Amino acid sequence: MQSSQAKIFFGIIGILILGVIATVLIRSSSAPAGPGKYDAFAQCLKDKGAVFYGAFWCPNCQEQKKLFDSSIKLLPYVECSTLDGQSQVKACADKNIEGYPTWDFADGSRLTGVVSLETLAAKTSCFLPQ
Predict the structure, then answer these.
(1) Host domain of residue 2
(2) How far, CA to CA in Å, does 32 sit from each of 67, 75, 111?
(3) Quick check: 29 pLDDT over 50?
(4) Residue 97 has pLDDT above 80, yes or no
(5) CATH no. for residue 49?
(6) Whole-angstrom distance, CA of residue 17 vs CA of residue 99
(7) Does some domain include residue 1?
(8) Both 77 and 16 in a single domain?
């Protein structure tokens, strides 16, 4: 390699390494420490057979997820959209999911749209922390 090519190569490698380090630092500082406020609530919803169907491109689904804060990881969530955002996956089509968000419950009932945590608690008898 010529000297200028080597400088460019090592410069690019250095930038990539700094990018990886910055990404790790940003992600580690934004990760919540300890359990989330709604962890037990989200787990109870799952245990009671509630299922949340949504799509990554759906603004109402994002709003529904935000209600759970860092406990989102425990939600009984099913992604209905294909990766291209143009179709619905078979699992959701088989359940006749027609809009997002949709909540299905063990008793066979269904709620659509953004559902309040209070309504989810009443529907499932799960304790909602204040």
Answers:
(1) 1-31
(2) 15, 16, 30
(3) no
(4) yes
(5) 3.40.30.10
(6) 43
(7) yes
(8) no
Same domain for 73 and 9? no
Q: What is the 3-state secondary structure (H, E, C) of the chain?
A: CCHHHHHHHHHHHHHHHHHHHHHHHHHHHHCCCCCCCCHHHHHHHHHCCCEEEECCCCHHHHHHHHCCHHHHHHCCEEECECCCCCCECHHHHHCCCCCCCEEECCCCCEEECCCCHHHHHHHHCCCCCC
The owner of tokens 């809009």 is 99
pLDDT score for 18: 46
What tokens were used for 101? 């968000």
- The predicted pLDDT at position 5 comes to 73
> Which amino acid does the sequence have at 59?
P
Q: How far apart are CA 119 and CA 111, in angstroms?
A: 10
CA pair distance 12, 2, nearest whole angstrom: 16
